[in-house]
Structures are given as structure tokens and as C-alpha cells.
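Budget justification aside, the reviewers requested a transparent look at the raw inputs and outputs of the sequence design task funded under Objective 1. We therefore reproduce one unedited record. The lines immediately below are the C-alpha cells for a 268-residue chain.
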């Protein structure tokens, strides 16, 4: 009986070894890579957090994409981009990098010099050129009303933080989001350092990486005219404008944003 058990055990070991060998062979490895999809990295903007991507995340996961929503510190363009860039370096394989609002500035810098980033998706986002700030771009065309909706700056160690007044949050930021949800977003909003909005960009990765733009025609934070200008300047591969959509288009129209990300992923 002992010899029978040993024979069975040896057969099991040989079977496992054969399977592992097949999986690690060059042909099997190539097939695995061919089946892989790029990792989608989502970077939120000011007055929001990673939960603002929930609707988009659900759709991307359902399509089999690996997804990571990064916590954006909202302290300064360079320091925030350095943190996101460090996360990107931890990811193997191709990446589609997505930024909302101020997060667009961050991804434009974070992707610079990283060959794994195959596409940039700007979701109601800034795409500054080197030497430009969010404040510069906001002033380029009329229509933005963020300044009128901000609460008085809150002094914190190292500078001032900005919030949107809660009673003005929905009208300014999320006009096409249900009232209860917009109210919750107003309460849980994350502030941005005032200095971050005036910080000049040091890199513009959209000059070398294919870009995609999606935004709403009723955006009050970054007017549609500004976003149209940035998309054309970047030579965007695809631009989608959703009629009457607010600044948080990824919340109110997650299907449109997810589709844009999938378009960027399949083209990259």
C-alpha cells in the first residue's frame, strides 16, 4: 500500500510540474499577455474624492479591466504628480491614465517619461501646457463661476484650503446629480490648497501620449470653451461633449466616461 501511495503522490507532483511548465513557457506567457487589458488608473480632482469614480469603476470592472483609483493629495501640482507617478511605477504593463478636473493637471505631469502610459483621458479636466496653471486656463474664456461659489479660505499649516460653499455646491459642481447625492458630496468634499490652482505646469504629457477628452456643455467649473480649446490644442484622438452635463460628468454620466476610457484602452 505504501508503494501505491508513493506512486500516486509522484504522479500528482509530475502533473503539477507539467502544468506550471506550460504556464511559464514563452508561448503561454505570450497568450496571457495578449489576453491582458491595460490597467485603468483614475485620479480625482478638487472638491471630490475617489468615490466620485464609483459608477465608472463598476462598468470597467464588469468589462474585465483592472482598475485603481488613486487618492490625490490636492496639495500642489508637482507634489501630487510625484505621488501619482510613484503609483504608476508600481504597475506592470500598459496603463490608461484618467484625470478629472484638477486631476488633469496631475496626470499631465505624472505620465511624463513613463512609457507604460499609453493614453490620457481628460474628464472635464485641465490639460495645461508647460508654464500654465489652472487659474490661467480658467481665465482664458468666460463662463466659469467657481470663484463666486467658494467659501472663505481656511488657514492650514503651510497655506490656505479652498472649499465650495455647501449651499452652492450642487448648482456649481453637480447640477445634474440627484439632490440627496449632491448634498452628500458637498459634505464630504475634499479641499484643495489654494496655491495648487496657481502652480504652473512643468510637463505636458499630452504632447507625446494620445489624449481623449469628455466634458459637459454646462460645466461651470471649467467652461466648455476652455475644454474645447485644450482638446483641440492637444490634438485629441476623440472628444465627446455631453449636452447639459455638469462638471462631475463621471458621476452623472458614468456610461459615457467608461465608454471613452474603453475607446482609449482598445486604441492604445
Amino acid at each position: 500500500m505504501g508503494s501505491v501511495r508513493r506512486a500516486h503522490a509522484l504522479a500528482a507532483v509530475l502533473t503539477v510540474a507539467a502544468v506550471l511548465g506550460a504556464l511559464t513557457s514563452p508561448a503561454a506567457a505570450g497568450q496571457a499577455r495578449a489576453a491582458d487589458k491595460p490597467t485603468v488608473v483614475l485620479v480625482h480632482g478638487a472638491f471630490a474624492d475617489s468615490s466620485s469614480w464609483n459608477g465608472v469603476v463598476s462598468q470597467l470592472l464588469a468589462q474585465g479591466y483592472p482598475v485603481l483609483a488613486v487618492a490625490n493629495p490636492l496639495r500642489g501640482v508637482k507634489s501630487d504628480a510625484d505621488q501619482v507617478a510613484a503609483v504608476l511605477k508600481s504597475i506592470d504593463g500598459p496603463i490608461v491614465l484618467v484625470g478629472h478636473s484638477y486631476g488633469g493637471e496631475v496626470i499631465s505631469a505624472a505620465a511624463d517619461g513613463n512609457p507604460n502610459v499609453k493614453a490620457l483621458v481628460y474628464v472635464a479636466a485641465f490639460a495645461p501646457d508647460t508654464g500654465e496653471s489652472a487659474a490661467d486656463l480658467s481665465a482664458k474664456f468666460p463662463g466659469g463661476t467657481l470663484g463666486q461659489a467658494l467659501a472663505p479660505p481656511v488657514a492650514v499649516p503651510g497655506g490656505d484650503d479652498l472649499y465650495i460653499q455647501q449651499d452652492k455646491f450642487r448648482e456649481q459642481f453637480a447640477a445634474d446629480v440627484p439632490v440627496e447625492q449632491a448634498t452628500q458630496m458637498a459634505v464630504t468634499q475634499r479641499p484643495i490648497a489654494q496655491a495648487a490652482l496657481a502652480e504652473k505646469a512643468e510637463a505636458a504629457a499630452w504632447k507625446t501620449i494620445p489624449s481623449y477628452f469628455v466634458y459637459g456643455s454646462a460645466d461651470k467649473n471649467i467652461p466648455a470653451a476652455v475644454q474645447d480649446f485644450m482638446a483641440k490644442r492637444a490634438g485629441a484622438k476623440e472628444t465627446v461633449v455631453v449636452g447639459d452635463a455638469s462638471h462631475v460628468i463621471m458621476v452623472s454620466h458614468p456610461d459615457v466616461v467608461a465608454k471613452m476610457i474603453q475607446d482609449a484602452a482598445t486604441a492604445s
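Residues 169 and 242 are 20 Å apart (CA to CA). The domain at 41-267 is CATH 3.40.50.1820 (Rossmann fold). Computational costs for records of this kind are itemized in the attached budget.
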